[in-house]
């Protein structure tokens, strides 16, 4: 998204009054960029709905939800926007179940359901958005969407987020991101930072990663690799798959020259036992962090974002 300037008069009186508090924090130009931004969320769950709530309240231009999966009882535990009696009132997709409630948070934001399969979206569709967030999708789908974002001449920020039980991970790809770095006593200086794609990031040999790399990072890569090899969707693996997952761990650790102790069996058991379940307090934290990251991207101050959190 472009980082052009603007004046307060270009915001409507209603917008200026509604967003007065945050305008005082990040300025008129940042609010203008936010109000012109178009966001697509592929995969509606407890984490992404927290993110959606945050950016709708902040005044994003538009939000599109893509998730054709039918609401189940499991969705009710973490997604606070899905009415608990919805399963008794006919068939409804996760996106449809949350759309109207999100509109109520801020009537000035356009919220809509995008019908389709994230693994099949074309480049023309991607061009409609400034930010794309992907969750509860296979690694293959994430790589496909991230690659599509990078093929476009338009600068599209890509984020993926996953929550398993009380564990979570966020990936960030801002491509070649231009931002303003504040200098003490001086004018902000324009800087540029190049981000790795998702494929590039997960292809880094483990022996080359920083020593402080978390055990969760390695565990998530093992599960992703196993799901990909078995054609499974995220959360479809269970504790019954543990022997095969441990074999996958051994194979990857041998190839990457990493001790298996860096990926504790107890952690893998915990992630497998979680399945598709999310921990609501962790959803709130991850959704809040993701919302802040997107705001930093739009107000041009987020140059120091790491690509995996």
Would you give the CATH topology of the largest domain?
Answer: Rossmann fold
> What value does the average pLDDT take?
87
Under CATH, the homologous superfamily of the largest domain reads NAD(P)-binding Rossmann-like Domain
Termini, distance in Å? 23 Å
Beta-strand segment tally: 8
Tally of helical segments: 12
CATH class group of the largest domain? Alpha Beta
Structural class: alpha/beta
- Which term fits the overall shape? globular
Number of domains: 2
Order the strands across the largest sheet as they lie in space.
Answer: 3-2-1-4-5-6
Rg estimate, integer Å: 20 Å
Largest sheet composition: 6 strands, mixed
Helix and strand pattern:
HHHEHEHEHEHEEEEHHHHH
InterPro entries: ThiF/MoeB/HesA (IPR045886), ThiF_NAD_FAD-bd (IPR000594), Ubiquitin-activating_enz (IPR035985), UBQ/SUMO-activ_enz_E1-like (IPR000011)
Pfam families: ThiF (PF00899)
Main location: nucleus
Subunit structure: Heterodimer of SAE1A or SAE1B and SAE2. The complex binds SUMO proteins via SAE2.
């Amino acid at each position: 998204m472009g980082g052009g300037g603007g004046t307060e008069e270009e915001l409507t009186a209603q917008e200026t009054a509604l967003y007065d508090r945050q305008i005082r924090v990040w300025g008129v130009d940042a609010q203008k960029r936010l109000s012109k931004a178009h966001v697509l969320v592929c995969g509606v769950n407890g984490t992404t709905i927290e993110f959606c709530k945050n950016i709708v309240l902040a005044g994003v231009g538009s939000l599109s939800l893509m998730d054709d999966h039918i609401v189940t009882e499991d969705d009710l535990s973490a997604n606070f926007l899905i009415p608990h009696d919805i399963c008794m009132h006919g068939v409804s997709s996760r996106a449809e179940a949350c759309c109207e409630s999100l509109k109520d948070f801020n009537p000035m934001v356009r919220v809509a359901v995008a019908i389709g399969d994230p693994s099949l979206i074309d480049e023309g569709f991607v061009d409609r958005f400034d930010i794309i967030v992907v969750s509860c999708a296979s690694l293959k789908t994430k790589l496909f969407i991230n690659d599509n974002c990078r093929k476009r001449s338009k600068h599209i920020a890509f984020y993926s987020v996953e929550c398993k039980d009380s564990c979570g991970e966020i990936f960030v790809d801002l491509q070649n991101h231009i931002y303003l770095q504040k200098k003490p006593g001086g004018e902000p200086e324009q800087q540029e930072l190049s981000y790795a794609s998702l494929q590039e990031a997960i292809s880094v040999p483990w022996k080359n990663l920083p020593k402080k790399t978390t055990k969760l990072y390695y565990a998530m890569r093992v599960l992703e690799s196993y799901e990909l090899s078995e054609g499974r969707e995220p959360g479809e693996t269970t504790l019954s798959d543990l022997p095969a997952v441990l074999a996958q761990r051994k194979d990857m650790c041998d190839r990457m020259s990493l001790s298996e102790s860096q990926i504790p069996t107890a952690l893998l058991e915990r992630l497998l036992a979680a399945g598709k379940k999310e921990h609501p307090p962790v959803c709130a934290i991850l959704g809040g962090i993701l919302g802040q990251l997107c705001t930093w991207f739009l107000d041009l101050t987020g140059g120091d974002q790491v690509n995996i959190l």
